[in-house]
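FAQ: What does the model actually see?

It sees only this:
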Amino acid sequence: MAHGIIGDEWSRSCKFMRIGTVAAEWRTKRVAVRLDVRAQWAPACFLDVESAWTREVLAGHLGLNPGDEKLPRAMAHWGRTARADHGGRAFSGLRYYSRWAAWECWQLFEPLDVVEVSRHQILCEAPELRRAAGIHGIRVY
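And it is asked to produce this:
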């Protein structure tokens, strides 16, 4: 859609990448890191905002209808501020699905004590990057 509005103007300029592409520089300036939550410090429980049961229960608790567009944000706020019986945080974050694809996402509430499990360079041929690029029709360099 943006390409139809902008046309090939950006493509002719050496200052911009072509629309629908990801520069190799983007990959080289970033790393992929896998983390694990230290359960002894945080509850490591995540509020599943996609669950119909969770939505129904929290909608009633928050005074909203399960289909109300304000519900996801209200649930996120409630999850962030909810306290366990011992007075500490009740949840370490939220679990939800991406609106771009059927990917499971996890939002971590800070501060959160995490341990780095692995770290690797983002390669052009990485299956995860190829899959995401394919969904959005993006060419990766």
